[in-house]
Design brief:
Blueprint lengths: L4 E7 L4 H11 L5 E8 L6 H7 L4 E3 L8 H14 L4 E4 L8 H6 L4 E5 L11 H8 L3 E8 L9 E8 L6 H24 L3 E4 L2 E4 L19
Parallel strand pairs: 1-2, 1-4, 2-3, 4-5
Antiparallel strand pairs: 5-6, 6-7, 8-9
Helix pairs in contact: 1-6, 5-6
The structure holds 5-O-phosphono-beta-D-ribofuranosylamine (GRF).
Length: 221
């Protein structure tokens, strides 16, 4: 029996990750149903995407609240009113309070455009590029009370090339975000995620080849 997981999506901006989740559901690849999308930004393009796909959208503008707890409580109430089981932070640019984290314990996933724990926080792709790393990538993790610190579910690694700019690197990472986020949600829907301490065990997956990557490639050794 397929289990369909009821998800709620938090967005602040363009919502291309939101779109990839919509697309995978519509193509029958992802066992999830988007109950509601919540945006803290009334002008987020993600809201247009919701409209196009007849997904209920709620704007909760953080500027209208006295403090973070009040704002988060409103989001909790909305998500609960749509019976959301799993919360997906898809480019949601607000830090969640402990109140929110406790309302959905290990039921909040976030995507971060770097290989955690490197480059936590904002502008991760640009900071990785400026640092001069040879590889970067993205991570999906469960949210905890820190910023980009929760247990990691899946990561994807991409190379950085000599002729990259921060923008081309960002685009390469984003293409992978669009693949690993639906995958992480699908693992959850299939009951494959077990959390032990800060480790997420993904059950029954193939072992990847033990092939070290080098960038630039080794020429002799
Ligand atoms: C993504 O790079 C995500 O990793 C970061 O914010 C960006 C959101 O992009 N947290 P989008 O709104 O999904 O297009």
């Amino acid at each position: 029996m397929r289990k369909i997981v009821d998800i709620g999506i938090l967005v602040s901006g363009s919502g291309s990750n939101f779109q990839s989740i919509i697309d995978q559901i519509e193509q029958g690849n992802l066992d999830a149903s988007i109950k509601v999308v919540v945006s803290n930004n009334p002008d987020a393009y993600a809201l247009e995407r919701a409209k196009k796909h007849n997904i209920p959208a709620v704007v909760i503008d953080h500027n209208n609240f006295n403090d973070r707890n009040e704002f988060d409580q409103e989001m909790i109430d909305v998500l609960n009113s749509y019976s959301v089981e799993l919360v997906i932070m898809a480019g949601f640019m607000r830090i969640l309070t402990p109140l929110f984290i406790k309302a959905f314990p290990m039921r909040i996933m976030n995507i971060h455009p770097a290989i955690l724990p490197s480059f936590q926080g904002i502008h991760a792709q640009e900071r990785a590029f400026d640092y001069g790393v040879k590889f970067s990538g993205c991570s999906v993790h469960f949210a905890d009370e820190g910023v980009d610190t929760g247990p990691v579910i899946i990561q994807s690694v991409v190379p950085v090339y000599n002729d990259d700019t921060a923008e081309t690197l960002q685009q390469r990472i984003l293409r992978e975000e669009h693949r690993i986020f639906p995958q992480a949600i699908q693992f959850y829907a299939e009951g494959k995620l077990e959390i032990i301490g800060r480790k997420v065990i993904v059950k029954d997956h193939k072992r990847i080849d033990e092939t070290p990557l080098h960038n630039p490639p080794l020429t002799k050794f």
